[in-house]
Amino acid sequence: MSLRTSASLSSSMADNLAKQIEEGVIPAGSKLPSIREYADASGCSKNTVISAFEMLTASGLIEPRRGSGFYVAQRAKAATEAEESGVLDRAMDTVWLMREQLQVKPDVLNLGEGFPPIEWLEATRLDQYHQRVVRTGVASLFRYGSRYGYLPLRQSLQQKLSGYEIEAAPSQIVLTHGANQAMDLVLRYFVRPGDTVLVDDPGYYPLFGKLKLSGANIIGVPREVDGPNLAELERCMIEHRPKLFFTQSVGHNPTATDTSAAKAYRILQLAETHDTVIVEDDAFADLRPRSLTRIATLDQLRRTIYVGSFSKSVSAALRVGFLACNAALASDLADVKMLIHVSSSEYSERTLAAIVSDGHFLRHTNQLQEKLRRATATAKTALKKLGAEIFKESEQSMYLWASLPEWTDSMKLAKAMLDRGVILAPGAVFSPASERVSAYSRFNVAYLADERFVNALRAIAP
Questions:
Q1: Domain boundaries, the chain
Q2: Which residue in 136, 248, 395, 458 has the most C-beta neighbors within 10 A?
Q3: How far is CA 312 from CA 135, 195, 308, 398, in A?
Q4: pLDDT tens across 330-358, in order?
Q5: Residue 162 class from Cβ within 10 Å (0-12 exposed, 13-18 middle, 19+ buried)?
Q6: Domain 91-114+362-459 maps to which CATH number in 3.40.190.10, 3.40.50.10350, 2.60.40.10, 3.90.1150.10?
Q7: Phi, psi of 39 (to 5 degrees)
């Protein structure tokens, strides 16, 4: 065996043991098998094992004890715990917040939650629709669907969009695996490494992660109480010639703001002048009044890609979203979808089609909006009692964007509250410049009345 091969085997053995120690498979304080036993079990020389043990000793993971052998160091456990703590400190970011929202922790109050409470959505009774879905065409449930998605659902979406005065034929609508896949398709089609993309700042934080993966140059446009800062938007378009501008006109996440009609018109003018495509994310459409201004309504999908979702009004588990745009672009994006994912889930799309075509769905969304109005009023009262500054006092919004007195850094606040069993969504997470200190946090209005929030806040008062 060559020296190079032996060194490679030693490194591989050391890496494998280190992983087992760090994951707790071999606990701290455990005695390792002897060098001879390791050599016999692995079929390698004792020198190879000795080299591996020396590497682990040098890294502090194991320690020799005279006359007894090698043991997993107690400080290895401490180092692992410190590392996890460090990760947590660093990870008040996109992936951390997404992980927290996907977990159900009964003993934790999640004020950073992105969705309505489950009990608000249970009225849709997903279990009632299975038989209806099966009866509408069981054979198709065992095959890939259309690249555009299930036609009857696209026809229902055509009617839904007409309620916002957006004219879109079924050929202009592509069903996706949630709104996030719709954004993924747009990025795959338009963005190459180094391209500039504009986003709301603060804005939809998972989008920032997607853009980073795409290698895009991300530039935030400051969000004001009536929409994007137009002067900064124009400056960015002149200076950077962005391909895309991602924005939320209605029920903006996280600020609960709506873009005014005047600003929406000006955004379109700037996009036309500087050849920028507007991607309008309307994930909260079912929770907000239809009368609010949408850029796609003014533009009629000429330079706008409209993205929608049912995660907030029906179920995130169905994973059905859609995009609407001009017909030629819709065909191209449907091809991109087919190349990457073949198709979206026709079973989920059929289920959603059955739900939205049911007369109960309109009553359900009306009830959702009423619950949201009551929760928003309660949440504003709770925050004001604490002396909070609310960015925009919406009458009906899933979130409130607010800062608490004496806490100028919401990241520090979030870390302190986490120790008290309360999860917050600190403002820095919602900015493409995540290193920037923000006093603001995003609060889910449905949970702000919980006494655990006030009790935890009092316990950490500076």
A1: 3-80, 91-114+362-459, 126-358
A2: 248
A3: 27, 31, 10, 9
A4: 999 999 999 988 888 888 898 899 888 88
A5: exposed
A6: 3.90.1150.10
A7: -65, -45
* CATH architecture assignment, domain 126-358: 3-Layer(aba) Sandwich (3.40)
pLDDT digits (tens, 9 = 90+) for 377-401: 999 999 999 999 999 999 999 999 9
Tokens of 16: 């494998």
**Cα(441)–Cα(451) distance, integer angstroms:** 18
Q: Strand pairing partners for 69?
A: 65
Residue type, 460: I
Q: How far apart are CA 94 and CA 91, in angstroms?
A: 8
Which value, in Å, is the radius of gyration of the alpha carbons in the chain?
A: 27
Q: Among 93-97, 247-251, 303-307, 365-369, which stretch is predicted with the lowest mean pLDDT?
A: 93-97
Q: How many CA atoms lie within 13 A of 265 on its CB side?
A: 3
pLDDT per residue as tens digits for the range 235-248:
999 999 999 999 99
Q: Which fold has domain 3-80?
A: Arc Repressor Mutant, subunit A (1.10.10)
